[in-house]
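Appendix C: a fully annotated inverse folding record. The material below is reproduced so that readers can follow the format used throughout the book. The structure is listed first as tokens, followed by the designed sequence.
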């Protein structure tokens, strides 16, 4: 057995590039410059920092939302209220509550400190893809595969408005995949297939439409000052739109597969985008110049044996110093926002 092993080692040294092999081994055993949370047993669909920056909530295909310490990854508790994959979550602005939605067609609102369920919203009849709180914490907007975006009271579930998709394909309404609340609390932006739409969050009146996306809109985010909207889509692009002029500022083309998540830095200067190409990319919010590409989910190293796993969600820490990214590799990674 020993002689066979020796022969294999010799063959490896003779037939391969020794320098490359050595570099790979060093890279594989070198501790990565990030923290990895391994608490989930299925893909991670969404990540969000608490407003005080102390905790992270992560949603998963394992039917759970897990709350953990943002600094050392110590597990705080697991929320198990959903009966199917959890696709989305959001902290309330005051950090006291979390709203989560998923394949069980519900949005659940619960106490962030204890996991105690306050109530379950049953307004949708298909998968809930996205949820967002109003800046004042009084309302929630949810987007669904049932072709509606619904705005409702955050603590009673009373429905304020329902916006139905005007497009029907094969007898079913086209889904809304993403929704984001404007920083001033007056409007929401929604996306599915085709134009993104800005609508009044109280009356549902149309404020503006931007671009035409023949592909699928996966993610939307407003700039902190409310001037711009970033749109990630299945066209492998992130488009930046000016809400004052109605013009496309530029289109970021750094990815080579669907852009699944976009997040604006708290100071408004940079954007991070996560993609099914396995990378998260950080770039200048107004020029589109790439700052750097994070490959922690797309690489082999000790404790991470999945290559090129889709980055489904990205989120900035409230102080802008770090970014959390969730992936199909079942991990959440927290890394420095250089």
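Designed amino acids, in order:
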């Amino acid at each position: 057995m020993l002689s066979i092993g020796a022969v294999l080692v010799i063959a490896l040294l003779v037939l391969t590039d020794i320098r490359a092999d050595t570099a790979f081994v060093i890279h594989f055993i070198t501790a990565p410059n990030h923290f990895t949370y391994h608490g989930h047993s299925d893909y991670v669909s969404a990540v969000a920092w608490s407003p005080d920056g102390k905790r992270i909530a992560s949603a998963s295909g394992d039917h759970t939302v897990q709350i953990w310490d943002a600094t050392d990854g110590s597990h705080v508790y697991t929320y198990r209220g959903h009966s199917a994959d959890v696709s989305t979550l959001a902290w309330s602005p005051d950090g006291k509550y979390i709203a989560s939605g998923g394949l069980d067609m519900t949005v659940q609102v619960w106490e962030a400190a204890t996991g105690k369920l306050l109530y379950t919203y049953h307004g949708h009849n298909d998968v809930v893809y996205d949820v967002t709180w109003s800046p004042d914490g009084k309302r929630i907007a949810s987007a669904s595969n049932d072709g509606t975006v619904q705005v409702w009271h955050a603590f009673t579930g009373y429905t304020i408005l329902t916006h139905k998709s005007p497009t029907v394909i094969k007898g079913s309404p086209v889904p809304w995949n993403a929704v984001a609340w404007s920083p001033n609390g007056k409007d929401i932006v929604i996306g599915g297939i085709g134009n993104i739409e800005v609508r009044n969050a109280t009356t549902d009146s149309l404020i503006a439409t931007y671009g035409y996306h023949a592909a699928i809109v996966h993610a939307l985010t407003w700039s902190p000052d409310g001037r711009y909207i970033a749109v990630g889509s299945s066209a492998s692009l992130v488009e930046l739109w000016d809400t004052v002029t109605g013009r496309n500022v530029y289109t970021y083309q750094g990815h080579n597969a669907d852009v699944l998540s976009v997040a604006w830095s708290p100071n408004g200067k940079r954007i991070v985008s996560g993609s099914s190409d396995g990378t998260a990319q950080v770039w200048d919010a107004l020029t589109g110049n790439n700052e750097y590409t994070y490959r922690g989910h797309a690489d082999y190293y000790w404790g991470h044996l999945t290559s090129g796993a889709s980055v489904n969600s990205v989120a900035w820490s409230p102080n802008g110093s770090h970014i959390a990214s969730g992936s199909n590799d079942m991990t959440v990674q927290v890394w420095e926002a250089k």
